[in-house]
Amino acid sequence: MAAALRAAADKGDIAEVSRLLEVQDAATLRKIINSQDSETDLAPLTLAAAGGHQNCVAALLAARANPDLSVEDAGNRTALHMAAYDAHVEVAQLLLEARADACLMSSGGTPSDIVSQRAKEWRIGGGDGEEDIDRLNKILALLSGADR
Predict the structure, then answer these.
(1) Which range marks the domain in which residue 80 is found?
(2) What is the total count of domains within the chain?
(3) Is the pLDDT of residue 125 over 70?
(4) What predicted TM-score, i.e. pTM, was given to this entire model?
(5) How far apart are the C-alpha atoms of 48 and 91, rounded to whole Å?
(6) CA nearest neighbour of 93 among 129, 113, 67, 132
(7) CA–CA separation, 73 vs 6, rounded Å?
(8) Where residue 140 sits, what CATH number does that domain have?
(9) Alpha-carbon separation of residue 16 from 10, 36, 59, 82, 95 (angstroms)
(10) Considering all CA atoms of the chain, what is the largest pairwise distance in Å, rounded to the nearest integer?
(11) CB-CB contact of 19 with 55 (8 Å)
């Protein structure tokens, strides 16, 4: 069940994520909601956040997924670090509303550090243009409000 939940979250399959969350008894749900893959160390919430799957993130948070669970194999990044990296504004907002810690350090720094670095990279010629920079700036504004 844990692997199926991770796969559904990774694909953004909200119907399957919801089905898997609903059919579990409370004890099983506590076990699988934050289960990390043995190879990648990624948990369902981290996968959904990295993919920008807002509905899956909301469902997992409602089922009490830990927003501050760090991924050792990914430089101790949390779901918020992942959402910040790929400029998933709505996902970052959901995580912050769930009280994700915006000050947690990863190997790349805090989520704010990651956003700042990505903005520099995209300005130099990496991203899809101004739209990417705008999304990063929105996340930076959310994060600066959360730091207070």
Answers:
(1) 2-146
(2) 1
(3) no
(4) 0.90
(5) 9
(6) 67
(7) 16
(8) 1.25.40.20
(9) 11, 18, 11, 22, 21
(10) 50
(11) no
